[in-house]
Automatic annotation (TrEMBL):
Family stated for the protein in its record: Belongs to the short-chain dehydrogenases/reductases (SDR) family.
One GO MF term: oxidoreductase activity
PANTHER family the record matches: DEHYDROGENASE/REDUCTASE SDR FAMILY MEMBER 7B, DEHYDROGENASE_REDUCTASE SDR FAMILY MEMBER 7B
Matching Pfam families: adh_short
Protein name: NAD(P)-binding protein
UniProt organism field: Rhizopogon vinicolor AM-OR11-026
GO CC terms: membrane
Keyword terms of this UniProt record: Oxidoreductase
Domain of life: Eukaryota
Record-linked Gene3D superfamilies: NAD(P)-binding Rossmann-like Domain
SUPFAM superfamilies assigned: NAD(P)-binding Rossmann-fold domains
Length: 326
């Protein structure tokens, strides 16, 4: 028994030490991308730049002197973001294209625009997506009564509603990145000396959480898609950015909100406890510059991912506590 415990402890220690060693090696060997693409000449396409981290990234790239193309669905907010950026850089460095990442027509329009104006792009950043905040059974209207803990059967209409919600989540979190990859990977490969793609995902894509079944599964699907694409296209630097909860109004985009009422937030207020948008945006830019593969913030979440495989019961309990799920 002692030998077994000793081996198990050694294995756990190795599992925790390995990612730190690999991370250090990555920092030591990664060349700065600016030697191939100077900051003032970088052509950056930001899909989902009307709010949140995408908008903050637009500001930071504008300050750095890059040429930026902002893409978003909401025209008024898109123009507001563009005006903010034009105050931070040369006005002709900012392009805008109103479009939905899940629309093939819109994405090909974006591609035609950057080819016409810039002869291509160097960096694609995908921040667009939608949230989903409810337990899956709640989406289908299946909730226990006060008198009994058992669940009623979902009606056919309720199941159809849940399927519709899932399709909306897939459009935003999977098909958007899917269409963007098909549209822009050939362009990146043909026109940039150091092509790069950053996918803004979520730590929920690798550590499951209650009330996030739809959100996490659709984000996980796009993450795995891009991880496979990184193997198929080694000339492009792929960065997978997996943050914890971020401040802001992202939850307002929830596709599973109750009808005629605001979304129900189960966790603590993200604007009080979430990661700062500026910090996340700056770390995204650093990861792109360093050609980092996978970034998880805060760092403790990297250990949480490992701990989920070592001690899943504990991580599941912690997830229920975080999301106030009983």
């Amino acid at each position: 028994m002692f030998e077994y415990d000793h081996i198990r402890t050694a294995s756990a220690t190795f599992a925790l030490a390995l990612p730190l060693g690999l991370l250090l090696l990555q920092y030591l060997k990664s060349p700065q991308r600016s030697s191939q693409v100077p900051h003032s000449q970088e052509r950056v396409l930001i899909l989902g730049s009307t709010s949140g981290v995408g908008r903050t990234l637009a500001h930071q790239y504008a300050k750095r002197g890059a040429r930026i193309c902002l893409v978003g669905r909401r025209e008024m907010m898109l123009e507001e973001a563009a005006e903010e950026c034009r105050k931070l850089c040369e006005a002709d460095h900012v392009l805008t294209v109103r479009g939905d990442c899940a629309s093939v027509e819109d994405m090909t329009k974006v591609r035609d625009t950057v080819i016409k104006e810039w002869d291509g792009i160097d960096t694609v950043i995908i921040t667009a997506g939608v949230s989903a905040l409810q337990p899956l059974m709640s989406v289908a209207g299946v909730t226990p009564s006060k008198d009994s803990p058992s669940l009623p059967h979902a009606t056919a209409d309720a199941i159809n509603h849940a399927v519709g919600v899932a399709k909306a989540a897939l459009d935003g979190n999977f098909f958007g990145p899917y269409i963007a990859a098909i549209t822009f990977i050939p362009l990146l490969r043909s026109c940039s000396p150091s092509p790069s793609i950053l996918l803004l995902s979520t730590v929920a894509a690798i550590i499951p959480a209650p009330t996030r079944s739809l959100y996490a599964s659709t984000k996980s699907a796009s993450l795995l898609l891009f991880q496979a694409l990184a193997i198929e296209h080694p000339r492009i630097s792929f960065t997978f950015f997996l943050p914890g909860t971020i401040e802001g109004d992202f939850r307002a985009s929830a596709v599973d909100s109750p009808l005629n009422s605001p979304p129900i937030i189960h966790e603590a207020d993200p604007n009080k406890h979430g990661l700062r948008r500026g910090v996340v945006a700056a770390r995204c830019m650093q990861a792109i510059d360093r050609k980092e593969k996978t970034v998880i913030i805060p760092m403790i979440m990297r250990f949480g991912h490992l701990l989920y495989w070592i001690w899943p019961a504990y991580m599941e309990w912690r997830a229920r506590v975080k999301y106030n799920f009983r």
